[in-house]
Amino acid sequence: MKDRTPKILIVDDEPLNIKILEMLLNKHGFQTISANNGASARIVAAQELPDLILLDVMMPDEDGYATCEHLKRQPGVADIPVIFISALTDTASKVHGLDVGGVDYISKPFERAEVLARVKVHLKLRFTYQALIEAQAQRLAQVQDAQQSLLVSPEDIPQAGFAVHYEPILEAGGDFYDVLSMGGAVFDYIVADVSGHDLGTSYITSALKALFSQNCNPVTTASESLSMINRVLCRILENDTHITAGFARLNRSQNTLEYVNAGHPAPLLVRASGDYEILHASGDILGAFDSVVFDVLSIPVSPGDRLFLYTDGLIENFGPTRRTRDQGLQYLAQICQKFHHLPLPEALTAIHTTVAPPNVPREDDIILLAVEV
Predict the structure, then answer these.
(1) Contact (CB, 8 A) for 21 and 47
(2) Fewest CB atoms less than 10 Å from the CB: which of 206, 238, 241, 296?
(3) Does any domain span residue 1?
(4) In this structure, are 200 and 266 located in the same domain?
(5) pLDDT at residue number 199
């Protein structure tokens, strides 16, 4: 039987502090492990995967704030809650701890009752979160709806201002897109690619539809939504399956674009002037690691600008002349630039016909989704 005793990592350069916390937590039924500096804490956290980390702020070489920042960028441990313990009691120090990823702050000399209360609260939140993930995974594992009926069309949400071309190589493909209204003038645009080309991948796109609908909302950032979705995918995907995704949130009233990349080909932003930008952003693929880390691009946009999201089937492997991904991206950028003067639906058709000519055998699914600000 799996040991369900909560495991807590204590990080402090003072052995006495570690001993006191160990005695307190062990007495109340918690497992404890320890590290005496930030570098060791990162190693121990990756190996032991604790449920909670108690982290001292004032340590030599690397303080607790820096350690926390490293942990939050480390796949596999980024979602472990961190509670800071420090003699620093000023508001600025506490706010800084929260800004770098901590969930709470306990002042030294600490009261044992307070430590226990805060530990229990955050463990309860973590276990509730994990139970929600498991419940979603169980429900979504049974989703087998027809794929085409799930895909939104521009006519369904005209105010979202998008056009799309979707071309699976089989009856139901492994590529996926969605457009969601977040209320007011805010819209989410998602393009994803499931690894593999067999019909078995098609059910995953049904799960993606439900996952994005459940986890995208006005108060959750794009990166937070992808992180939540990733935890569920880790439980429903087979070991050799993963997903790449591009996630754009456009606020049409504020003319701002937020983009998060989960291992997906970089999108193109073609300005109203015709100039283009390739939006490079790093991020982990989905479904491989319980914890993922993403870069977030925040870009000002103007009316007439166009964003192009796509899957790699559009830029690779057409006809006898092979293109690398970089070559394909540069070619796509030039073609998008060439047809930027056309109305969006006509431009999309012209771009797709040029980049992926008809009657040329396909080797991968294709999605091209264009958004006009």
Answers:
(1) no
(2) 238
(3) no
(4) yes
(5) 45
pLDDT digits (tens, 9 = 90+) for 253-310: 999 999 999 999 999 999 999 999 999 999 999 988 888 999 999 999 999 999 999 9
Helix axes 344-355, 325-338, angle to 10 degrees: 140
Q: Is residue 145 part of a domain?
A: no
What are 271-281's pLDDT values in tens digits? Answer: 999 999 999 99
Write out the E strands in 226-281: 243-251, 256-262, 268-270, 276-278
Cα dihedral 234, 237, 238, 243 sign: negative
Residue 286: how many other CB atoms lie within 10 Å? 27
In the block, tokens 């983009």 appear at 259
CATH of the domain at 122: 3.40.50.2300
Helical H runs in the chain? 15-27, 38-48, 64-72, 91-99, 112-140, 202-215, 222-236, 325-338, 344-355
- Residues 116, 176: one domain? no
Domain identity same for 125 and 167: no
Determine how β-strand 366-372 pairs with β-strand 162-167: antiparallel
The pair of three-digit structure tokens given for residue 34, joined into one six-digit string: 């320890």
- Does residue 103 lie in a domain region? yes
- Give the whole-angstrom CA distance, residue 112 versus residue 24: 7
Residue 231, phi then psi, degrees to nearest 5: -60, -35
Which phi and psi angles does 9 have, rounded to 5°? -95, 125
* Portion of the chain with pLDDT greater than 70, in percent: 89
Q: Which residues contact 32 (CB under 8 A, 6 or more apart)?
A: 7, 8, 9, 10, 21, 22, 25, 26
Q: Does 56 map to a domain?
A: yes
User: Considering 85, 115, 140, which residue would you say is the last residue of a domain?
Assistant: 140
Specify the 3-state DSSP secondary structure of 32.
Answer: strand
Residues 84 and 170 in one domain: no
Q: How many CB atoms lie within 10 A of CB 277?
A: 15
Range of the domain at 57: 7-140
Same domain, residue pair 164 and 265: yes
